[in-house]
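Dear all,

This email documents one entry for the complex benchmark we are building for the journal club exercise. For each entry we list the sequence lines for every component of the assembly. Then comes the predicted three-dimensional structure of the complex as a token string, followed by one or two observations. Please use this as the template for your own entries, and keep the labels exactly as they appear.
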Amino acid sequence: MKTFIKLSIFIVFLITIACNTNPNKETNTNSSIKTEKIVNSDYLLMSTLWFQKSAEMQAVYLQTYHFAKLIIDNKLNLNNNDKPKAVVVDIDETVLDNSSFEAHCITKNTSYTSEEWKAWVDKSEAKALPGALDFLKYAKEKGVETIYISNRKKNTQVSTLTNLRKLEFPFADDTHLFLRDSVSTKRYRREAVLDKYDVILYIGDNLTDYSEIFENRNSKLAKDIVEKNKAVLGVDFLILPNPMYGEWEKPVFDNNMRLPKAEKDSLRKAILNTY
Ligand SMILES: [Mg+2]
């Protein structure tokens, strides 16, 4: 009997070792640790939190779109150009709120990929940003058309229009929507719009929503270009805040957005001004 008990204990011991050294289990544990080290989206946390939860964000959007009404009223009084009037707006983080996508990246500990982004866009579930809809409806009442120039890809044309229409944005149709074709610069799409329209105001969360001159993010981070062109701010162009992502990130990574995530993380800290 004693021998039988000893043998049973020995067998249980062997089974326990076998379970603990299961190669699949080991691999899974290692890969999840590795994933956590390499892909860390926590850098998005505060900016996304601010974008979604701060009343200040709501206030600055409302303030901007309120000011937009004053600008178009003023321009319509002054302007006698015969072309039809238009405002050019960017879409993402200008009229539509995609912060849920950033939150998804944080909670799933993933980063932006064009596939993940398309999956989000195809849901057509982005909400309108504060003040945007009210302003564009106001502009329409004043006879001003809306032109949407966005760097969403052409393969999201239908889902983008579905999203805009669901929220009742005016002029949400193929002739008023200019998505990205072969190049990401918005320059040529703006020029095409200017052939037909008198654009009285541009609104975007990126300086390049107004002009390609801001594409050059030099060692001065394009702040010198802003200084030189500050006269257009609040007159021809309204800029909205986007701390989550944008062209502003480029010089942080020396214009190489494809750097490994760990390197990007180091560069974010290295560029800070401190004492
Ligand atoms: Mg944008």
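Observations: The mean pLDDT is 88. The longest helix spans residues 55-78.
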